[in-house]
Design goal:
- This protein has no helices and 20 strands.
- It has about 280 residues and is an all-beta fold.
- Strands 15, 16, 17, 18, 19 and 20 form a 6-stranded antiparallel sheet that branches. It has a 5-stranded antiparallel sheet with strand order 7-14-9-12-11, with no helix packed on it.
- Strand 3 and strand 4 (about 30) form a beta hairpin.
- The model has no long low-confidence stretch (mean pLDDT about 85).
């Protein structure tokens, strides 16, 4: 079959041969580059390697009143294979995740008349720009989306909430022990007067959706820490609340097989008599 192009020839010492065309793949010149994809920020040859502790990549929040459907965009700068955590706190009823399709949220709530919390997690594909929740007849809801990078998306779970506790008439909420990988604490309250709070030392505060002061509304607070198997302390609120729910969401990671020291943690950074850090 005749060529449909003009070949570039070179003398190899024995005869004229066609020059092999090569392409720069970002690291070196190769004959057959791997397929690349756009991750929302740049062209990638392959997904980022999963790490033991995923890194926070962004978040946003929103509030909805007197509407059946609630939408919230994904965090700005989200990239393909980011691990998305979508949280919907509803004043009543059990929220349903409508979009993106194919993901079933874990819903915590025992009665249609009680406050409930729904959490869904999935790897970002680049096709979904926002999250859509069906709130039913709930008069009010708070939404939070968080994105984590370099988590192990192959370990996506239908039950991302690994632990929960509910307290009555408190202004201090004891935290349960964190778990492996990155632990995200989600605190849920309903009150007229929650205006400030303080997470214990060692936790990194993330997105917050506070209710309006003077109105009986939901407030959702989030913070994170590397999992170490010990409690970080207590969440302090500026006022007592009738009920406070605390939920632990685990962001899956992939261990590299090496020991991990979490400096400053009473449980995970205690050196033995024959242990040395180099």
């Amino acid at each position: 079959m005749p060529r449909k192009y003009n070949p570039v020839m070179t003398w190899d010492g024995k005869g004229w041969v066609e020059v092999v065309q090569k392409v720069w793949d970002g690291k070196s010149w190769v004959e057959k580059p791997s397929a690349r994809y756009w991750d929302g920020q740049e062209w990638m040859n392959s997904p980022p390697e999963a790490r033991e502790f995923a890194t926070y990549a962004g978040s946003n929040s929103g509030s909805v009143s007197a509407k059946q459907y609630a939408t919230l965009g994904l965090p700005p700068g989200a990239r393909v294979n980011d691990y998305i955590v979508s949280i919907c706190a509803s004043m009543s009823g059990l929220p349903r995740l409508l979009s993106p399709a194919g993901h079933v949220p874990q819903v915590m709530g025992g009665s249609p008349d009680e406050i409930s919390l729904a959490v869904a997690c999935w790897p970002y594909t680049g096709n979904e720009d926002q999250v859509l929740w069906d709130l039913g007849a709930s008069p009010q809801a708070k939404l939070i989306n968080l994105a984590y990078r370099s988590g192990d998306v192959t370990q996506q779970s239908l039950t991302p909430v690994s632990d929960m506790q509910v307290y009555k008439a408190v202004d201090k909420v004891p935290l349960m022990p964190s778990r492996d990988f990155v632990s995200v604490f989600v605190a849920l309250t309903a009150s007229r007067e929650v205006s400030s709070y303080r997470w214990p030392e060692g936790l990194i505060p993330r997105e917050t959706a506070l209710g309006r002061f003077g109105s009986y509304e939901i407030s959702v607070l989030t913070a994170e820490t590397p999992g170490a198997g010990a409690s970080a302390g207590t969440l302090s609120l500026n006022t007592p609340v009738d009920t406070a729910g605390l939920y632990l969401v685990t962001i899956p990671g992939r261990s590299d097989g090496h020991p991990t020291w979490i400096l400053g943690d009473d449980n995970a950074s205690v050196l033995g008599v024959s242990t040395y850090l180099g």
